[in-house]
Specification:
Length: about 240
């Protein structure tokens, strides 16, 4: 969190909203280890994204390549890594409108930039019962850029398996910037999930078998406090 206090001000002028996902969101004093990185979801627009050039944390050539492709509409998501005080910083940049649609299940997938065609990206998704679906995602050339899909969800045999665009905003993220906008999207994501939960799992709902917690990657690493927070919200939204 001390590292975040130093780097977030660099990102604010270039972003519409920022949230922390991953181990910090799952319980800073429970899930975080010496090997943990910091996962940031940063929402940008084509107009403001060039302000990232002044952040000073990334390979500028790679950043310019992704930004140019994003401004041309080639893809809507790209990721860059940095290291701050020996801690890896995973920065996932999203077009703000594309993120809103992905997080609330209005789109099934988003195009993202990749740096290499190999190895193929592996995507993990989970159902309300905690079942795992693993999928290899293909990468294709689109002009000077490499792109692949970034799924929001997949449907297998009438079951929905949820991917990171949804689980990141559901898994107790820490909102740092653009909180009001993020809260609205989170509420929409919860409403969409509960509608799907009721439709797929039936009534009366067996909460020992089907829960929102089960869709989260690394659910076994979530702190008891965060798990209870998610369960309480699920019960409240169901009611």
């Amino acid at each position: 969190m001390q590292i975040l206090k130093k780097v977030i001000p660099k990102f604010v002028p270039a972003t519409e909203a920022i949230m922390v996902s991953g181990s910090l969101a799952y319980g800073a004093n429970y899930s975080v280890t010496e090997k943990s990185d910091i996962d940031l979801q940063l929402l940008v627009t084509r107009r403001g994204v060039t302000r990232l050039y002044t952040v000073g944390l990334f390979d500028l050539e790679k950043l310019r390549h992704f930004v140019k492709g994003y401004q041309k509409g080639i893809a809507q998501q790209f990721s860059l890594t940095a290291e701050v005080e020996g801690v890896p910083l995973e920065c996932h940049f999203w077009d703000v409108n594309a993120f809103a649609k992905a997080a609330t299940m209005r789109t099934r997938q988003t195009l993202r930039f990749r740096s290499s065609i190999n190895p193929p990206p592996i995507d993990y998704a989970h159902s309300f019962a905690g079942e795992e679906d693993i999928s290899k995602l293909s990468t294709a050339h689109k002009g000077k850029w490499l792109v692949s899909s970034f799924p929001s969800y997949r449907i297998r045999k009438k079951k929905m398996f949820f991917c990171r665009p949804i689980t990141n905003i559901i898994g107790s993220p820490i909102f740092i910037h653009g909180n009001e906008w993020l809260v609205r999207r989170q509420n929409e994501a919860w409403d969409a999930l509960i509608m799907r939960l009721n439709k797929e799992c039936g009534e009366p709902l067996n909460l020992k078998m089907y829960t929102i917690v089960n869709i989260l990657p690394g659910k076994n690493k979530i702190s008891p406090a965060v798990k209870e927070k998610i369960m309480k919200r699920m019960r409240r939204t169901l009611a």
